[in-house]
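Objective 1b: paired records.
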Amino acid sequence: MRAVVSRVSSASVVVEGAVVGEVGRGLLALVGVARDDDAAAAREMARKIHELRVFPGDDGEVSAADLGLPVLVVSQFTLQGDTRRGRRPSWSAAAPGPVAEPLVETVVAALRERGARVATGVFGASMQVSSVNDGPFTLLLET
């Protein structure tokens, strides 16, 4: 499982002209599920996202968990694209929708169980994602 996580001052997702998820200061997590991922990997990804120390604090860097900040989770199968050969990405490592959707939902549920406020996109929809990257600060997380 991969996630591209950005520290944001705001982020939102629009589907068919309507805002379906948005956060102010917090994290934007684009999550891509691989074929061999499982619920344990999803829960570990949620932990990593929530505990990622990317916000300035009085005694060093602190996490969204420490500050009670929200997370916007957006599924993005293209994170599993392989571009090492040629000009056309291969999607063979990406989990099919019926496998990926419940695992993205597991990430969201695990974040909520940890006490995070979570907004989401719509799995499989054509989404317009907007964000104001704070820093900029963006990391690739893998489980």
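Objective 1b, second protein:
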Amino acid sequence: MLDSFLVRAALAGLGVAVAAAPLGCFVVWRRMAYFGDATAHASILGVALALSFNMSIFAGVLVVALVMATTVSTLSGRGYAMDTLLGVLAHSAIAFGLVAVSFLEGVRIDLMAYLFGDILAVGRVDLAVIWGGALLVLALVGWRWQQLLTATVSPDLAHASGIDPKREQLILTIALAVVVAVAIKVVGVLLIAALLIIPAAAARPLSETPERMAAIAAGIGAVSALGGLQLAYAFDTPAGPTIVCVAAGVFALTSLLSLIRD
């Protein structure tokens, strides 16, 4: 079954959708959309480092994404506004990454594949990495779900309950870094943030509880991945952007339903 590139692509899309859904909800609740975008931009530097040191792309991207996440968590609130800090780090990282790529000799690199994804080229090893990362993220978020929710709703309430909001933020940013590392092959650097945010935003009008929002977001992400692949195959369009377009269409539909209902 895994010999078919379309089956591998579908499984890869489902893996990223399942991992991104609960994190996307926290990104929406915490208004951290720019963080996901910044971490994704920084992953280009990870690609350059991985190629320079002859290591796996996943490992290089994960290291840089983790450094980005911990740096932001450490420096935020210490004289730097979050959006300013993210802007500096994101644009610096992608600039250094692109410059580093230009110095690589004897290495052929398809920047478009890393910027917009190449889900149809996913192999068995890529599939194992994607689902391994997805299961790790789901286990981490499931383990800390209540603490993350409490810290998101009210840092003061979290303190009163013996929960450290900074620690929960660090856990969330580490999980986001893992998702960025596994998603770069599927939708690419420029579209990762969209796959995090759009399904969660589309699920919000349909949800009455945080758990239901995460579940519906996972469903929307899965439908977007499978529907986007089907449309890309039918109309010969880029798979990653088509997946995001389907997610945007679902968001428009749920927003319209919300307006009609109100």
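The chain has a mean pLDDT of 85. The CA atoms of residues 87 and 189 lie 16 Å apart.
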